[in-house]
Amino acid sequence: MPPRSAEASRKTKETDISVSVHVDGSGKSDIATGVGFFDHMLDQLSRHSLIDMTVRAKGDLHIDDHHTVEDTGIALGQALAKALGERRGIMRYASIDLAMDETLTRAAIDVSGRPFLVWKVSFSSPKIGTFDTELVREFFQALAQNAGITLHVTNHYGANNHHIAETCFKAVARALRVALERDPRQPDAVPSTKGSLKG
Description:
There is one protein chain. By secondary structure, the protein is an alpha+beta fold. The chain is built from four helices and ten strands. It has helices at 36-49, 66-84, 134-147, 161-179, and strands spanning 5-11, 15-22, 29-32, 52-59, 93-100, 103-110, 116-120, 127-128, 131-132, 150-157. A four-stranded mixed β-sheet has the order 1-2-4-3, with helices on one face. α1 (36-49) packs parallel to α4 and α2 runs parallel beside α3. The longest helix is centred in the middle third of the chain and has 19 residues, at 66-84. It starts with a strand and ends in a 20-residue tail after the last helix.
C-alpha cells in the first residue's frame, strides 16, 4: 500500500502555516502554533489518532488566536484530504463515547467526502486560561470542511471546561483512528455504493 502522507500550507496576510501528516503513524507530533493550549490539544489529536503531525504556524496573535486556530484547521484538513486520496480501503465510519474524569463526550465520523459539522458542545466560560473556548468549534469546522468529513460532536456532560475541550479533541482523534484504518476485507475498494467518496 502506498504511504498515506501529505503536506499542506496556507499563507495569508493573517497567517503563515505549514502542516504535514502521516496517517499510518504512531502518534508523534511536533507542534508549534504560538498558542499554548491549542498546541496541547493538537498533541492530543495526533497522539490518540496515531496520525503523525508536524504543524508550524505564525499568526496575528497580537489581535487574537482566531485566525491561527482556524487556518491551522484548514491546512490540517487539506493535508488529510490529500493523504487519503480516493479513500480506498478505509473503514470510513466510527464513533466513540470518551470519558475524562467528570466529562463525557461523543464523536461520530463519516469520512464521506461531504463536509458537515454538527456541534453540540457548550462551555460555561468564554476562556480556558487565555484561550477562547469558541475556537474549539472553529477548529473542527475548518477541519471537517477541508478534510471532507462529516463530524458530529456532542458533550453529554462535564463541569471543567478544560476537560470538555480535551474530550472533544480526544474523541475526534479516537474516531479518526478507527475510521481511517484499512479494512482487511476490502483493502482496495471505495466503501460506497456510489464508487466514490469525493462528495
